[in-house]
Design brief:
Blueprint lengths: L3 H14 L8 E4 L3 E5 L2 H10 L3 H9 L6 H20 L8 E6 L2 H12 L7 E4 L4 E5 L5 H16 L6 H14 L3
Parallel strand pairs: 2-3, 3-5
Antiparallel strand pairs: 1-2, 4-5
Helix pairs in contact: 2-4, 3-4, 4-6, 4-7, 6-7
């Protein structure tokens, strides 16, 4: 891959972690995102860990899914659409990148590399890159709904709202994704 995100991850992994994952930057495309990951095992774990609850899981089961990729595409599309409904915001051109990382340590390393700050995040949305960085070990519906809330808000308003409003709306999405 020649994308800046993959190149940044290769540099990050080689400089800070010491090794470059063998197949960095496999991709899965959904209606709303390009999901980048280093191997199918990580994607499988992400899919396994991402339990949607009874109502949303029923919606996933009603759609065709022959592979892990199909099931995950369905899950991610349903989560985005549910968050849009919760926030009553339906941006016209919502599309982002999602980078799956094995653990919060890697998420925190990426954040430190990009922003120079140490944080304890398990996921974060980079407004400037339109990218979610997400720890597969720590993923759950609420964490992902929160980050998707940032995406929806970011794509909905022509002028970005203040950070506290952004965060408040993301928290609302997180709290009400199962309603």
């Amino acid at each position: 891959m020649t994308s800046r995100v993959c190149a940044s991850l290769v540099i990050l992994f080689s400089l800070h972690i010491g090794t470059i994952p063998s197949a960095l930057c496999e991709e899965l495309k959904t209606r709303y995102a390009t999901v980048r990951y280093d191997d199918i095992a990580l994607l499988q774990k992400f899919n396994d860990e991402l339990y949607l609850g009874r109502q949303l899981s029923l919606q996933v089961r009603q759609q065709k899914a022959f592979t892990i990729q199909d099931e995950l595409q369905n899950k991610l599309n349903i989560i985005v659409e549910k968050v849009e409904t919760v926030l009553d915001m339906f941006p016209a051109k919502l599309y982002v990148t999602m980078v799956l990382l094995p653990s919060s340590k890697e998420v925190q390393e990426v954040y430190l590399q990009k922003y120079g700050n140490r944080v304890n995040h398990v996921a974060y949305y980079s407004l400037s890159e339109k990218t979610i960085y997400l720890s597969v070990n720590d993923v759950n519906l609420n964490v992902l709904a929160h980050e998707v809330g940032h995406i929806v808000v970011d794509h909905y308003f022509p002028v970005r709202p203040p950070y506290k409003i952004h965060e408040l709306l993301a928290q609302f999405a997180e709290a009400h994704v199962n309603d």
